[in-house]
Structures are given as structure tokens and as C-alpha cells.
Amino acid sequence: ILSEVHLQPVMKLLFKKLKRAQILITNVFACLSKHNNKENFKANKKCEISIPRFAQASGGWSPLDSNEQQWLQVDLGDRLEIVAVATQGRYGSSDWVTSYTLMFSDTGRNWKQYRQDDTIWVFTGNNNADSVVHHKLLHSTKARFLRFIPLKWNAGGRIGLRVEVFGCSYKSDIADFDGRSSLLYRFNQKLMSTFKDVVSLKFKSMQGDGVLFHAEGQRGDYITLELQKGKLSLHINLGDSNLHFSNSHTSVTLSSLLDDQHWHSVLIERFNKQVNFTVDKHTQHFRTKGDSDHLDIDYELSFGGIPVPGKPGTFQRKNFHGCIENLYYNGVNIIDLAKRRKPQIYTVGNVTFSCSEPQIVPITFLSTSQSYLLLPGTPQIDGLSVSFQFRTWNKDGLFLYTELSENSGPLLVYLHGGRLTLLIQKETENPVEITEGTNLHDGLWHSVNINARRHRITLTLDNNAATASHATTASRIYSGNSYYFGGCPDNFTNSQCLNPITAFQGCMRLIFIDNQPKDLILVQQGSLGNFSDLHIDLCGIKDRCLPNYCEHGGKCSQSWTTFYCDCNDTGYMGATCHNSIYEQSCEAYRHQGKTSGFFYIDSDGSGPLGPLRVFCNITEDKIWTAVQHNNTGLTRVQRADMEKPYTMFFNYNSSVEQLEAMINSAEYCEQEAAYHCKKSRLLNTPNGIPFAWWVGRANEKHLYWGGSLPGIQQCACGLEESCLDMRYFCNCDADREEWTNDTGLLAFKDHLPVTQIVITDTNRSNSEAAWKIGPLRCYGDSEWLFHFWNAASFNTEASYLHFPTFHAEVSADISFFFKTTATSGVFLENLGIKDFIRVEIRSPKEITFSIDVGNGPREATVQSPTPLNDNQWHYVRAERNLKQTSLQVDSLPKKVLEAPAEGHFRLQLNSQLFVGGTASRKKGFLGCIRSLHLNGQKLELEEKAKMTPGVKPGCPGHCSSYGNLCHNGGKCVEKYNGYSCDCTNSAYEGPFCKDEVSALFEAGTSVTYIFQEPYPVTKNASTSSSAIYVDAVISKEYITFSFLTAHTPSLLLYINTYFHEYLAVILSKNGSLQVRYKLSKDGLLIFTINSGNFANRELHHVKINREGRELTVQVDQVLKLKHNFSEIDFKAIKSLTLGKVTDSLPLDPEVSKANAYGFTGCLSSVQYNHIAPLKAALRHPSIAPVTVKGSLTESSCASIMEADVNTATTIYSSSDPFGKADEREPLTNAVRSDSAVIGGVIAVVIFIIFCIIAIMSRFLYQHKQAHRSSQAKEKEYPENLESSFKADIDLQNTVSECKREYFI
Asked: Higher model confidence: residue 921 or residue 468?
């Protein structure tokens, strides 16, 4: 099969530090693939190659058939350290290999693929027959056997290869443990106490459990390293004499799949309580629990097991079965001492000093559709016996299919939902089904045994006969002729193999049929059975959850080809839990139009910090962010002194890093600090040792109080020189017998939040104190706001900004806004040697995200139905992780590309990051980019733009994209960084003109707007340009308002003109709504909306719109009326009145009836064209042409409707969710029960006396006194009108003055 093979040295010594292996190649095996079909098989020959002087060598290896099923095996004669390889093509030919992989083995069995960066590494080969391509291995490998596996070769030739391997001799000390043996290392003294330990070793095993080493002491100290289900666990306990009742036990588990019969390295380094635990490439750093720093152990350590179980603290564990190499404990070579029979070493059982290698051949099923293994059986035997071992990550897959003889039917063994199922199907009988086990897709080796005799069949899992399952069949069971493992052939058309489930993906070994082992090497050579899409002589299982690439605490699970992340309860989403589901600040929620409430904020977006629950106060101009802690109430303190201080720790339900991020990004932060005292000193000023202090974020003690400055031992009154006693700098330091307080704000950001308060002066006679630390409050997320609008304008295609290299090896997210009129251009680009990442607009309707991590370019493209170069802001988010590459543009469907299961996955970039331009030959970007974020980090575009030609900082035109966020007639105002909403001509207010402006009206309340000058009055406006002339005709009325009442009839709104025309909106006696026009030509027109009683204590929204002759009326967003006037000449508006009309005007009888009562209730957000009369009366009463008569109290109609109208309750503003107690009496909370009883008695007495006087007064002076009482009420109790109204609206009829006084 093979052509003449001549191997020559392809390089003399390219790596000076590397010594060529003394025996470079002794035997070369050229074999057909690890996967092949029997019909294509050609017999293999063992080639004994005599290697002449390398300088004279020529030729090379070229197999007869050039396909992906060939490999070249090299035997180095002994186990060596391989550090480099080199290749050439076949001499004087067109035959060379362009790419290949490597495999290694100690025995020529159970091969291991060479991996780099946790992936099967593909080496670049040759591009001609003569040049030398060499590769230094990133990780040297110790092995005797080496395989070169060609993947691709010259298309114009065949596979051709000359190889050379570079390495060093490798010496090691090995001990073989049989599962019952161990080595004991005994100290010179009975007790060994160490504060530093270093243990290093290598091991290989086929068993998933076993103790590698153990040491313990009489006082409870121990250290144990053991295999548990293929993972390595380190247990350690320092200085604990009561093992069972202590939490000082520390356990750490690393790695997995360590029972693969390959070498694994272990390093344990302990210094006091700090431990570094390394298994292969994975390291975990941790600190031991408990207080001790020393490990105290008794006279010996055991390696390979625990020979004397039952000692205090020992674990009932299996001994280790396998080989250990180069075992060192604190610099002592344990195996070398054992080999030399030194007295420090005591051997238990049979320990040998060479590694026995079990000749077990595993196989890997690669495909869920094409993989199968066909093995022959002995047909028509009375009974059946099949056994095998498997390991997999897949929940489903076919293990075995065979057609039983004598029409016994097919027998199937498969995995379904992680459970093992055996099924025998026969047309004339009921199927026989046996189910065993759960969660068998855990990656561990499991054994399956199937035995049948006559009518009885037994299924045994993991050799546990006690739990074996049995079943009986009606007919006898006879063995089959062919056994299909893993799946069925694709081209099978007859019934000899039918797979009702997916094919098996995983590993198998130790296959027995009819109690005879099957030699899978014969299968590989084509002498036995048949197969497809297998790896023979290796198990290719990989733990895709190690390391865990699920971010932010996501839980990893896996199948054979990929991993999955469960992001529930993490606050993140996406394939790898990378993207936060929350905004970065309250400013961001405000920008979305959210109102005040509790939110989660994630300060660093996709960064490592988790989300933080805060209260966002969005009702004020400044957006406040508040974080509550565990004790914001007023707390009483007694009996505390220096020896027994009172201490309170504050818990904010967050980490210090989360709070620091929030504080650092804010413009201003504060916490209220209040100390109420009675003969209790605070800071002991002017020169004493403080009796109270607080601790801040850096665990630093602070000796200043609220309202003062850092470093100054004073309170607010000391700084303002307003203390009760000027000799002291705090009111409480005067040490008075009566209650006083020191209250102020702590506002130095670097010291916040308050984490602890200590009080020590309340243990003297009559000494008492009460303290309060308020929630942490911050406003002005200047960082988010700045970066949200942080923009740069690119004016030429050659202009760009450059930043440091974007480091995002396994996870990258890029987001930004852009607007442009250009047809194409690169937004950003970063290059590596081969890798790159790029985002660009390729055409007016196409955005593309391109990336190459070494497997070839991949592109995610989003097509837009409309052009994106419309000079409007558009949002782009590109993301790449180990599972997928995705691109989102605005709200268009996301484009997602799944990542390949194997191949390179680390994105390695080394050039600068170009923004707005490119280092390649592509076209740069023309337009604006803003709010650019990379992996949650903000890029400073404006500062870079200031110093870069062709790029300008900032970008105008925000209102073109965001003007629709200004509601209810609000006007978008362009700003350099962003926009704002001007609510001047809107009946609403707030950042987006969405907050209602409403007020409570009493009977007799009147708000009249005079149309002499339109509001707002501007100082520079001329009368001629702004006055409404008497002969002007109003072409339209646009009226909106909301109301809530329980009273009828009522006059809601009245508009009159200079020509004695009017428009009135009233509630009739029956609760219907009427719109009444009095026109000079048409007379009185009445439009009644009789769809229910609108005086029902619910909030109703009215919209009246007249455009020319067409009138429409909507109530509660439903069109109720539509009318066309024959002619309309509603002219010269004089005034608009809300509530009672107090002027002498000619009113029709129905309006007069309604006007007699005016309006009692709540009016909200009243708009007439561009005028907001109610808002003008409440916000600008001194400058607006508005007159208010009677009582007008600002309130919230929505809050009143939600409140219980039958109970007078206190309603706190949404701006203060935690409430504010009256602090004039500092111990309100502490003595609440006593004060409540006393207050209740006093209130009842006053109430009874007050009602008696009121009834008598009304009886004697009914009319006169009622009038005076009304005036007195308006003067003395304006602040109580809201609660009075809430009581009033519960009644259907007008209440008497006495009843109103009752609710006051």
C-alpha cells in the first residue's frame, strides 16, 4: 500500500533549547482511518523502516488512497517530552499535506487528540513539496506514540509527508496502585505542624473514585485529595477539635472526566489559610474556613488510599486504582524514597513502580445520523448475553438494535430522557419494556448488561444486581445474527435495523456479545464487522461546562455538541447570560418614559457587577436614586457606654462594589443623619473624644456628623454657628436634660454609604438617645447621561477615531446609535493577525456584523424594509459568544448565527480599534455615531473627536428622532447633548409632559382666565403681535380635561365671548354630560351625552374638538358625539372659567342651576387650544392673566380615585416611598403605643365637644354663622381640603357645613 518511505531531518535545530529525541522514529505505521467502511478497506502493512543518514534521505510517505481516513504513526521507542513537529511534502512530487491534526499515546492504544485553547488544534501544513513548516507546541506533551492525521492536501496531487519530531528525554518516578495498596510517609516526630504545604503529582486512572492522598491529626485537622465521579476534590480542615459541629470544613472540586486513563497534573499550594488548587489548566484560589492557620497532622501521610479507616476524622472512601507519577510533598520525592526502600516509607499492599496499562479500546460515535457499529453474533443460541459501557451528555440515543432469531422480534436498548430502556417488539405479542436509572447522560461511565434465558430477560445497570430489572416474554428468546450499536446505516431499506430514536453520540468500550469480548482493533482494520463515522481507539468526550462560560451565575448544562445556559434568577439574558435585562440607571428608565417606582439598575451593563434594587424618583426635575437599608426608622438607644457600646450594622442588600459604582456615577449623593438626645453627648466637642461615630464604605471611622464637612469634628450647627450653646459644635454636646437634636446630610461621596453607627453615651442617669440614618440617595447619573448623548460626527470617508485594542476573547457585545445619509461605510473595525471584527452599513438597507476567530469569516446581516440612511437615529447591537453571533438593528428581527461545535473560539485582536473608519481598504463612515459601548464599557467619542482632524464632537438633530417622546403638546427642544421637552403650552408637566396638573375645587371655587394676552406673557412681545382682537373669529376649539366628582348639577367649564356667546360644559342633575353652545345666529345648541352617571367618583377624560363646522366629543377615549354646524362664528373669546362663574353674565336656566353649586371635585390637565388655565393658576398665578376665587388645592385626581373614599387616610407622595415621620418628637416610634392611647382619648373628647358647639351654633345663627363658618374654614384649614373632599365624595348629595366640619 505504501510507497517507499524515506524520512530526513527537515531542520537542524530551529529551537536551540530543544534537544532532538535520541530515538526519533523507529517504526512507522501507515494505517487506514479510525473510521472507514469495510468494503473500502485495504489491508495494512507494518513498515519496519531503516533510517539512513538524514542528509542523504529522500522520498516520503504517501498512502495508496488519499482520503481523510489515513494516518501516519510514529513510535519514539520510549516516553519522551515532545515540544515541536515539522513537516515537508514527498520529495520531488506534487504530494503534500496542507493541514493536519496530532494524536498522542503512551501505549499505542487509547489515543488523545492534541488540543490548544480547549479545541482540537489544526496545524497548518505545506504549500509545496520542499519547504519546511515547523510548529512549536504551546503545551509540550509526554508520549511514546505520535500520529499525524492529514485533513487536507494538494488538490493536484496526493497525500505526501515527511516528518520530524523534536523533544527531550523524560525521566519520571511512577507508582502503580491496585485499589488495595498505598504508600505511607512517616515523619520523624509524632506531630507535624505546618503553615505552608506544597503537593504536586500526576495521575492516570480508569476509575472515577479513589483517595490520592490523606493526612489527619488527633485535634481534627485533615487534608484529603480524592477522585469523586471523575472530578478531583480537595477537603481541608485546620485546627478544629469538634469536627461534626463546625463549619470550618472546606471542600473544593475541580475538573471532570479525569477517569480517562490519561495523565493529569495536580498542584496544591497552601500558605496559612490561602490555598491555590490547580488541576491541569484550571486553578481555583480560596481561603480555608475557621480561625487556625496551621495544619497539625499525626506522624504520617498516606498516598493511594487510607489504610487504617476508623481513625478520628477519616473518610470511608475507596482507595485509588491507577498510576501516580512524580509525587512530591514539600519537596520530598515520595516515590523515589519508596523505590529505594527508605525507612520513611511504609508500603501497604502491592505497589509496583511501572504503570500497568489496561488494553481497553474505546470508540466514539460522532454523528446523530450516520454513526453505527455492526458486530456479528452467534445466531439461534437459546438466550442472549450482551454487555457494554457507555458515557454521554445526550439524553437520547440508540445503544443497540438486533433482530432476534426464530421470529422473536427486534430488541432495542436506548436512552430516552436520561433513562435506560429495553424494548422487545413482536407483532403477535404485547411489547416487553424495561426501564432503568435516571440522569444517565451525566458524562460518567455506566455499564449495561442484558441477559436472556428462555422466556426471562434481565437488564442490569452499573453491575448492581440488587436493582436489576426482569421481564418475561410469551415466546422464547434466541440470539440474533447482527448487532447494531449506536445507530443504523443510512442506506438500510429492509427491517434488519430500524432506529425509532436519534443515533447515539458518545463513547463505548468493553463490548461483549455472547460472553465474548469484541476486538475493536480488528474492526478498525476491517477484519470484523463494519462501521461508519466513528473514532476507534479514543474517547472524544469533552466537558463543555468546564470552564463555565455561562456568565453572571448562569447554570451550565450540555449535550455532546454544545452547552446551554440557564439564566433564570440571574438578571441577565442571552445565550451565555451576558446581557443585563435591566437599565444602567434611573436616568435610563426616565428616558424610556417610566414613572417613579422600584427598579433594578445594572451600573456596568454586561460587566461583572450584578443588578441593584433601587427606588427611582422620576417626579422631580432631578432624578433621584434611593437605596434602602435595614433600619431607616428612628431607633431608641439606652444603657450604652464605652465598655458596652451600641453598634448597628447597615445592610443594603447589595455588595460594596455595586453601591460604589452607583455613587461614583452620580453627580451628588447624600444620607440623612439624625441624632436626638437627652443628656447624651454626640461628638464631645470641642476637644473631647467622640461618644458616637459612623463607619463608611472603606471601613473607615468618621468623626463628623450630618451637615458638616469631612475632617471637621462638628455638626451642622457648629459649621453654621447656630448651636444652642455656642461653646460646643453640636447641640447634643451641651448635655442638656431636655430633648434636642443634631440633624444634617452626609454628602461626601467617597465616604458613603454609611455601613455602621456606634453610640456610647446613654448609660448615665436620665440619659437617652434616638438615631436615624436615612436611605442612600443620589441624583444626576452624569456618566450615563453623558455617554448616552456622547457623539462624534465623521465628515470624510478617511476620518476615524482610534482606541486601544478591543479585548473580547470569548464574549463581545457592541452597541451604538448612528445616523447617516451615506449609502455605505464601516462603523468600527479591529484586526488581529488572522482574526478580525467589523460592523458596517453595506447598503442603505443592510447592516452587517463580520467576525473571524480563526475558522473563516462569518457574517450576520440584517435587511431593513426601509432605508437606514434617512438621517434618523438607528440602534445597532452586535454580539458574539461561544454559542452564537447575533445582530440587532432597531426593532427588526434579530439575525442569529450558531457557532460551530468545534474549532477556534478565542477572538485574538492586536491592532487598534478603529471607529468610523477602517485599517483595511474598506470605505469609511460618513455621519454620526453616539453612545458607543463595548462589553458594557463606554467609549469617549467627543474627547477623541476634539483632537482628531475630520471628526467633530457632538451631533445635532436629536429631536428628529426623539421628538415623539414629548407628549400632550410638549415641544422638543434641541440641546447639544440630547434634548428636553418644553411643556409651557401643555396642560401637563414633567420630563416628558406626561404628569398631570390637577386641583381640588370646593363649592364656590372659581378659576378665570382672561384672554387679553395669551399665556405665557413674554416681556419682549408686542401687544399687536399677541393680543386677541374682538373681531377675530376662532376657527377651532380644542378642549381636553379630566374630572372626578360625586355632585350634580355641576359647572365644569364656561367660555364667553365679547358678543355674549358662550360654550359651557355641565353635569346635569341625572349625571349626564352636556356641551352647550350659545351662538348669536343659531341660538342655543345642546349636546347631551347620556351614557351613564358621570358623577360616580371615577376619573373621566373629556375631549371636545371643533375644526371649522365639525364638532366631535370623546369621553373616556370613546367617540360619543359628532355634529356639523350649519354656520359657526364663535368670535372674540373674553374669558374661560373653571368652576363657579362669579361675574354677572346672562346664563340660561340649566347653566344657572349648575353654576349655583359650581364644581366640587377634582379637575385635571385642562387645555384650551394652546392655553393651560389650571396649570397657569397653580404654577404662575402672579404673572398669568388668571384669577382664583375660593379654595384651590393642588392634588392628584388619580390618587384620590385609588384611595379608599370611606376613610380619611394619609397619602405619601411617590417621591418619598419610605415616608417621613414627624420628627418634632424623636421617640414617636419608640413610645407609639402610649401616645396612641392618649391621643385617641383626646381626639374623641375634642370631636364630641366640637360637634355639640357646631350644632348649637347652626341652630341659633343658621344663615349668618354658616357664612362666617365657611370663611373661617377657607382661612384656617386649607391644608385639610383634600381629606375633606375624599370624605365628601362618598355622599350622593350636597353635605351640610356641619358634615364638612366633621371630616375636617
From this structure: 468
Instruction: Give how far Cα 1226 sits from Cα of 324, 633, 635, Å.
Output: 72, 11, 9
Is the Cβ–Cβ distance between 1303 and 1276 less than 8 Å?
no
How many whole angstroms separate alpha carbon 706 and alpha carbon 546? 51
Q: What is the predicted pLDDT for the residue at 1213?
A: 33
What is residue 1075's DSSP assignment? E
- Closest C-alpha among 850, 796, 790 to residue 822: 796
Q: What is the pLDDT of residues 1180-1199, one digit of tens each?
A: 888 889 999 999 998 888 77
Of residues 231, 263, 233, 229, the one with CA closest to residue 444: 229
Strand partners, 1038: 1105
Q: Greatest CA separation found in the chain?
A: 137
Rounded to an integer, what is the distance from CA 1221 to the centroid of its chain? 38
Q: Is the model's pLDDT at 964 over the cut of 70?
A: yes
Count the residues in the chain: 1304
**Residue 465: strand, helix, or coil:** helix
Find all residues with CB under 8 Å of 768, minimum gap 6, and list them.
636, 637, 638, 677, 678, 679, 680, 762
Cis peptide before 686 (omega within 30 of 0): yes
Residue 1068 CB coordination number (10 Å): 20
- Please state, in angstroms and rounded to a whole number, the distance separating the CA atoms of residues 744 and 1216: 18
Question: What are the two backbone dihedrals, phi and then psi, of residue 51, each rounded to the nearest 5 degrees?
Answer: -95, 115
| Of 345 and 1279, more confident | 345
d(CA 577, CA 550): 6
Return contacts of 1244-1250, CB within 8 angstroms, 24+ apart. Answer: 1250/1301
Apex CA 987: angle with CA 985 and CA 992, to 5°? 80
Alpha carbon of residue 35 to chain centroid: 43
Geometric angle at alpha carbon 1176, from 1170 and 1179, rounded to 5°: 135
**Percent share of the chain, pLDDT over 70:** 83
E-strand stretches of 1125-1280: 1133-1139, 1161-1168, 1186-1189, 1192-1195
Give the other-Cβ count within 10 Å of 8's Cβ.
19
Residue 393 near residue 559, CB atoms below 8 Å: yes
- In 3D space, the residue among 67, 62, 48 whose CA is nearest the CA of residue 3 turns out to be 62
* pLDDT of 779 above 90: no
Distance CA 972, CA 67 (A): 69
Q: Which residue has the cell 450576520?
A: 860
- Cβ-contact 904, 833 below 8 angstroms: no
Q: Does 1092 score more than 80 pLDDT? A: yes
153: pLDDT strictly greater than 80: yes
For the cut 80, the answer to whether the pLDDT of residue 1008 exceeds it is yes
Is 242 exposed, middle or buried (CB count within 10 Å of its CB: 0-12, 13-18, 19+)?
exposed
Residue 21 has pLDDT above 50, yes or no: no
Question: What is the pTM assigned to this prediction?
Answer: 0.70
Long-range contacts, stretch 654-657, CB < 8 angstroms, 24+ apart: 654/612, 654/613, 654/627, 655/609, 655/610, 656/697, 657/609
CA-based end-to-end distance of the chain:
109
461: number of Cβ within 10 Å: 17
8 A C-beta contact, residue 952 and residue 808: no
d(CA 258, CA 272): 29
- Distance between CA atoms of 912 and 829, rounded to whole angstroms? 9
CB 266 within 8 A of CB 203: yes
Q: Are strands 692-695 and 791-794 parallel, antiparallel or unpaired?
A: unpaired
SS3 letters for 496-544? CCCCCCCECCEEEEEEEECCEECCHHHHHHCCCCEEECEEECCCCCCCC
CA distance 445 to 438: 14
Whether the Cβ atoms of residue 876 and residue 928 lie closer than 8 Å to each other: no
- Dist. CA 593–CA 968, nearest whole Å: 13
Q: What angle do CA 818, 819, 823 make, to 5 degrees?
A: 110
Task: Assess whether pLDDT exceeds 80 at residue 403.
Answer: yes
